[in-house]
Design brief:
The complex is a heterodimer.
Chain A: H1 11-21, E1 27-30, H2 34-41, E2 48-50, H3 58-68, E3 74-79, H4 80-84, H5 88-96, E4 101-107, E5 110-111, E6 117-118, H6 127-133, E7 138-141, H7 145-156, E8 162-167, H8 181-191
Parallel strand pairs in A: 1-2, 1-3, 3-4, 4-8, 7-8
Antiparallel strand pairs in A: 5-6
Helix pairs in contact in A: 1-2, 1-7
Chain B: H1 3-12, H2 16-26, E1 29-34, H3 41-49, E2 54-57, H4 61-73, E3 77-78, E4 80-83, H5 84-87, H6 91-98, E5 106-110, H7 120-135, E6 139-143, H8 146-163, E7 167-171, H9 173-176
Parallel strand pairs in B: 1-2, 1-3, 4-5, 5-7, 6-7
Helix pairs in contact in B: 2-3, 2-8
């Protein structure tokens, strides 16, 4: 990976742009750490789910939601380090082809939250190349913010799952998610119409 | 259908794997991700053949746990099938997802490592399973008898759902025959 023509963007800015586009109670699964901190900071929605552990499972959790509610669009936000822990999930998703699942990878090449150590992939591997080779045909790098928004729009009406990778800077998350797992889960289930509020 | 054929059908319906399949169906558990195991093969085959179920392999057991957890929150019930060695990879996802978020994770574990195990690694990893379950105070049952299977599985699934807590149903070689061939 010596030649890169993608702009280095910012996680919070990109996340905010995504959230602004959601008009149909789309579900959003935020991966561990900064990814869900910025999802929280972009403004809580009842259809947001925030992971407090289980690193690497944002895409599998989102896949489960997508299989349970095929008429709802489901987004998953994951970091590059997290995704590296669970690359096999990409082929599972490619095999099942849930058309309502949209995966977004925030790639800064580092484990920012633990001290910005480089990931093993940072200088050698290409996330979009890995996704495409895993069978996810609709996998793309976002060239800049406008391109990201265009790719999201396309993914919203696609007939196959989509993966959008975004090169981001090494800034930490803007907010801090309130760490109450039962409340997070219960509100999410309300937001998905599975449960009535008490 | 001839009477003899019906009898054959009835007999085969009392196999452990038929009971598991029927119990899953009766409890509206339709999403079955798994990491395969030789002993589970007839169950997996029959799940694939039944259109009620969405059955597929995952690359890792924790991936399957993530999938059924998401599905539960979306209103669809699932269960994960795995082998003892696969359960050993789950401590983190149990402690950071299923337990704290109160998700009724239903696990069927084909038990390797005991009653004729030929692979030392399997027998060692088996010894970690119940201590991990006990350390998180998770409900688990080791099923050894086919006449108790339906009761244990059905009641455990209902308890998991109503108490929003995970359960592990360990399918012992006394129930399944286990794996004795070293091939």
């Amino acid at each position: 990976m010596t030649t890169r023509n993608t702009k280095v963007m910012n996680r919070f800015d990109v996340t905010s742009r995504l959230i602004a586009k959601l008009k149909h109670e789309e579900a959003v699964i935020g991966g561990i750490g900064n990814t869900n901190f910025d999802l929280w900071a972009a403004g809580h929605r009842p259809q947001n789910f925030y992971m407090l552990g289980s690193m690497g499972l944002a895409f599998p959790i989102a896949l489960g939601v997508a299989l349970a509610q095929p008429d709802r669009r489901v987004f998953a936000l994951e970091g590059d380090g997290s995704l590296l822990m669970q690359l096999g999930a990409l082929s599972t998703i490619a095999m099942l082809k849930p058309k309502n699942l949209i995966m977004i990878v925030m790639d800064n090449g580092v484990y920012q939250i633990t001290g910005a150590q480089p990931t093993p992939a940072a200088s050698v591997a290409d996330i979009v190349g890995i996704a495409a080779a895993s069978g996810l045909v609709r996998s793309s790098w976002a060239a800049d913010e406008e391109d990201f928004e265009r790719l999201v729009d396309e993914a919203m009406s696609a007939a196959e799952p989509s993966l959008i990778a975004v090169r981001i800077d090494d800034k930490p998350g803007v907010g801090t998610t309130r760490r109450d797992p039962v409340q997070i889960r219960e509100r999410f289930m309300h937001g998905l119409g599975v449960r009535e509020p008490l | 259908m001839a009477i003899a054929e019906q009898q054959t059908q009835a007999t085969s319906d009392r196999s452990w794997h038929s009971i598991v399949l029927q119990t899953l169906k009766r409890n509206e558990i339709s999403l079955i991700p798994y990491v395969p195991d030789r002993v589970l093969t007839p169950l997996i085959k029959n799940l694939h053949a039944d259109p009620f179920f969405t059955t597929f392999a995952t690359a890792r057991e924790e991936e399957a746990v993530g999938i059924v957890s998401g599905a539960w929150m979306g209103g669809r019930r699932g269960a994960v099938l795995m082998q003892t060695s696969g359960f050993a990879t789950l401590a983190n996802v149990l402690a950071s997802l299923a337990v704290p978020y109160q998700i009724p994770l239903i696990m069927f574990v084909s038990e390797r490592g005991t009653l004729g195990e030929f692979n030392y690694g399997q027998s060692l990893v088996c010894r970690t399973m119940r201590p991990v379950l006990d350390s998180l105070a998770l409900e688990h049952h080791t099923i050894t008898r086919v006449d108790e299977l339906e009761f244990i599985a059905d009641r455990s699934i209902k308890q998991a759902v109503t108490t929003q807590a995970p359960v592990a149903l360990i399918l012992n070689p006394l129930l399944t025959g286990g794996k004795v061939s070293d091939k």
